[in-house]
Design brief:
The protein is α+β, with helices and mostly antiparallel strands. The protein has helices spanning 16-22, 43-52, 72-79, 127-133, 158-164, 210-220, 231-241, 284-293; strands at residues 4-5, 11-12, 27-31, 34-39, 54-58, 63-68, 92-98, 104-114, 117-122, 140-143, 149-154, 178-183, 186-191, 200-205, 226-228, 297-304, 314-316, 325-335, 340-348, 357-366, 369-380.
């Protein structure tokens, strides 16, 4: 199915007709050439759908690349920092890839669809880099973004909603697993993945069957509080889960023009994704050197006193007047479900170890007057939101 152009010059997702029916705010933004809703009716209610029932987000604009050929595994193992030999068919891997200097280009998910057949998904477009990286490998890299319609179905009742649709295999589907199901005369792929830190799934289908899938999903979820959601609700949920977003928590290495603006996997809390025991991969030499000598920056999760959101705030080692700043906030929010003032940030080492106390300079406006608060914050090492249902197999029904 060929995407349809709209008057903004952007593309419409196959789910657009159903989203447009729900939209009362008309707040859309550009995501990889597609129109994506920031919110549809009320971002607060959309957020609570994720945490209390089921929120449905259109992820069709996510860029998708089909990777096949005799050297597909070797190619991916050279491209990304983790060992893809451990990711068997029917499993999904969260992965990152770097330039030769060990700086992160992007992160994404790699689906091992069937033996030797992979799909790489990312927020940004990377066909040029992926094609260049394929030189010397017997591999085919094809962008298939427009050929796959996809929905994120997230929240505590999501399992029950999909069970109501009659999808087989859900009871044994573990986190980061995938199954294939025949429906509407085509194949539906269901993966237990998502960007909310909660129980959730992602559905992948032929664009010609997108509306059929939407209607069946919402009919199955009618008594389970199912709601469509926009980007703002999803963004709050990912902050609570401690998930990073490109262009917010790190800059893709290919987009920067100034030195010192990029980050390595070791500097954004992703050392667990770097396997130095496998064969060579892009950036390995630089990352080994950094591991031996120490990193310049460290990602921190902060529990901040008070309720004033610390957007774009500086971080200090103490609250003294002439103290030098040690870093800055990249993402911040008041978490309704955690009842915490939370943030992700980046600080210079050796600061930012779990349990450390730091100070955050918060500015906020009330009735045209700006106020400044030095708020104490504690570095934590766990996600702010990590419910038990996220890992339960099978999840509890509702």
């Amino acid at each position: 199915m060929t995407p349809v152009s709209i008057n903004t010059g952007r593309l419409r997702s196959p789910f657009y007709p159903r989203l447009a029916e729900l939209d009362s705010l008309n707040t859309w933004h550009n995501w990889a050439g597609y129109s994506s809703a920031e919110a549809l009716y009320c971002e607060d209610m959309e957020y609570f759908a994720i945490r209390n029932s089921t929120g449905v987000f259109d992820i069709t604009p996510m860029t998708k690349y089909r990777i096949t050929g005799p050297d597909a595994l070797d190619y991916l193992n050279r491209l990304v920092t983790r060992d893809m030999r451990k990711i068997k068919p029917g499993r999904v891997a969260y992965a990152i890839w770097c330039d030769d200097q060990g700086q992160v280009i992007d992160d994404g998910t790699i689906f091992h669809l069937r033996e030797g057949e992979y799909r790489l998904c990312s927020q940004e477009r990377h066909l040029a880099w992926l094609t260049t990286a394929a030189i010397g490998f017997d591999v085919t890299v094809k962008e298939e973004t427009a050929e796959i319609a996809a929905l994120a179905v997230q929240g505590p009742t999501s399992y029950s909603v999909l069970k109501n649709m009659g999808i087989d295999g859900l009871d044994s589907l573990k986190p980061f697993g995938l199954i294939h199901h025949q429906i509407f005369g085509t194949e539906l792929m269901v993966s237990r993945t998502g960007f909310t830190g909660d129980l959730g799934y992602e559905l992948w289908i032929d664009p010609d069957k997108a509306i059929d899938l939407w209607d069946a999903l919402f009919a199955a979820g009618k008594l389970h509080g199912i709601q469509a959601i926009g980007t703002h609700a999803l963004d709050l949920a990912r902050k609570e889960a401690g998930y990073l977003a490109p262009f917010e928590d790190f800059l893709p290495a290919e987009t920067t023009v100034r030195t010192g603006r990029t980050r390595s996997p070791l500097e954004i809390g992703m050392e667990w994704l770097v396997d130095f025991n496998k064969d060579n991969f892009n950036g390995r030499r630089a990352l080994l050197k950094e591991k031996a000598e120490g990193s310049t920056w460290r990602l921190v999760k902060l529990d901040i006193e008070g309720n004033k959101t610390a957007d774009h705030s500086y971080i200090y080692a103490d609250d003294k007047k002439n103290s030098d700043e040690i870093g800055f906030i990249t993402s911040a929010a008041w978490s309704p479900v955690c009842k915490q003032n939370i943030a992700l940030g980046t600080v210079r080492t050796p600061h930012g170890k779990p349990g450390d106390n730091v100070w955050v300079e918060v500015y906020y406006q009330r009735e045209m007057h700006w106020n400044r608060v030095m708020a104490k914050a504690t570095v934590v090492d766990k996600p702010f939101w990590f419910p038990a249902r996220r890992g339960m197999t099978p999840p509890a029904p509702f």
